[in-house]
Structures are given as structure tokens and as C-alpha cells.
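Late entry, evening session. Most of the bench is empty. Finally got around to the prediction I had been postponing all week. Sequence below, unchanged from the version circulated by S.P.
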Amino acid sequence: MNKFYSLNIKEIIRETEQAVSLSFEVPDNLKELFSFKAGQYITLKTNIEEKEVRRAYSLCSAPNTNEYKVTVKEVEGGTFSVLANNKLKAGDVLEVHPPEGKFVFEPSNTKHNYAAFVAGSGITPVLSIIKTALTKETDSKFVLVYGNKTPDDTIFFKELLKLQIEYPERLYIEFVYSRTQEENAHFGRIENSTVNYVLKNKFDDLDFEKFYLCGPEVMIDSVSEVLLKNGIEKEKILFELFTSSDSGEVEANLEGETKLTVLVDDEEITFSMNKKDTVLDAALEKDLDVPYSCQGGICSSCIARITEGKAEMAKNQILTDSEIAEGLILTCQAHPTTPTLKVDYDDV
């Protein structure tokens, strides 16, 4: 279940000075395995300075097209992002895990209205969602509020303008710039007044089916708060975090050890671990081939199911209350709280 596949980079596209898109060749025998829903991500794996590096990136291409593309924004002091923006070239090979993720759009046969509030590279999964909504729900409308420093920093700026021309009565874009004042754009950042402008002013005639939020944690929190205050149901608000400032905290006593049993790829392994370690770290310390990506509690790669015992997560941005009640945990955040703990990576 944790298998990676070697894929060739077909093309590298320079989107902005700080961002490139990597387009992959997916051979025919892997196309079914690598089929995806709009909004999902893939995990890339490579070795940098003799150390394995894994990073999750959202697919910005739409499903059921010949494109299989992710966009990587260079982070100062970063590892993979620096490699992608400065050294990778067409023909290079990366190890790629099949698509995952719960920040998804699934088209229906009904007319709907959607809105998205995104900033920076948060546009990547939302672009896939927008394309899918416009092509698969032919009467639906989409409002995009997209924040950046300047137009030059805006990933997919030209592509979005082309989509707007192609769907003038169905796609509406509100650009927001924090460094420059531009005609027909907002100045500043996406904040409470921006959300209220969409809901109560310009698009007050639209009843939105879903809201998609992707960008900095502070933006997601503030937009969510305003939406909830305006009576939007929590279930209609979907969000995807790329980074989190919350380090998390466990209230339980983590003194002592736990007898941990891990089931992965139909193999069961039992060993002792310190409760202060996470389940994922303990499994990796034993060289178990368990799935993971971000290790920060913001993706869903490391989910497992508790079949015996209990564990407490330091933080959780992914799982719903009902999923937690079913025994699902993010193993990168989970600390054992019982003398024995059994987790199943296969049954998720």
C-alpha cells in the first residue's frame, strides 16, 4: 500500500520566478492506479544529499485529461522545493505515490454554486477543482478569491484569465494583492471584509453549495470564522493546509513504554516504544515501510486504524469526529496512552 512508482518528468514549466510545474508521464499500465479526484495530492520521493526526502504536492491538472501535473513553490531554505525550481529537468525520474487526500470535488448532475478563498500556492488543488466544476457541471458557477503579493507572483495568472474568458458567465475571479494596487483588484489581504463582500455584496444572489479554502493557516481560520458567523454550515466548508504553526499538545501522561503492534502490507510486527514518541516515528525507527508524507498532521498519508488500545493525537486537521470514533488516527501525531496498542495501516 506504500508503493512508489518511478515516473519520468515530461516537462518543467516556469509559472513564476518562485514556482515551477512538474508534468509527469504516466504509462498506460499505471493510469488506472494514478487516476484521481480533483483536489487530491501525490507524494514525491527522492534522495537529496544521501537522505530520503518526501513531499506532498497537490495535482493542479484536472482528472480525465492527459495532464498529470503538480506545482512546487520554492521555499527559502527548503529542500525539495529548491531542487525542483533550480536543478530538476525534463527526463529526470522521481518516485511517485498514487493520489491521496480528502480535499476533493466530485461533480454531480445538478447545478451548483461554489466559492474558493485561496492564497499563494493554495491555488494548486483549487485550479483542478475549478476546471472540473466548469467542465463536468455545465450550468454551475464558481467564485474564486485569490490572494498574492503582485500579479507577477500569481501562479496560473494567465491560465485563470483564459478560463475566465472561456466561461464569462460562470467563473468569477476576485484578485487580491498585498503589495501593488491594480485595476479591478482588491488591495490588501483576504480578510473578514473580503468574505463579507462576496457573501453580502457582489454575489449575494448566489447560494453556495461548498466553500474551498487553501492557503496560510491564519487565512483559513479567519475565513472559516466569518463563513460560520454568516450561517454557513460547517459541512460546507472544506480546507487544505500546506503548513501549520500549531505544534500540538497531548494531555495524557506519556511516561513509560507501550507494546506496539503494527500491521502493514499484511505483515504484523510487535515491539516496545516510548510513549513520548509518535507511532509513526517508532515504526520508522524499526525500518517499517509505513506510509507517510508531511509528518506534520496536515495530510492524510499516515492514517491507520486502532484495533486495540488507545492513542492521543497532538493535533488533527484532517480526521472528522466520526472517523476518530471509528478508530482512525494520524500516526505522525499519535502517542500511545495504553500499555498495548495495535494499529492497522491496511484497513483505512
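Two things to note before I forget:
Residues 107 and 136 are 6 Å apart (CA to CA).
The helical segments are 80-86, 123-136, 157-166, 192-202, 217-229, 279-285, 321-325.
Will write this up properly tomorrow.
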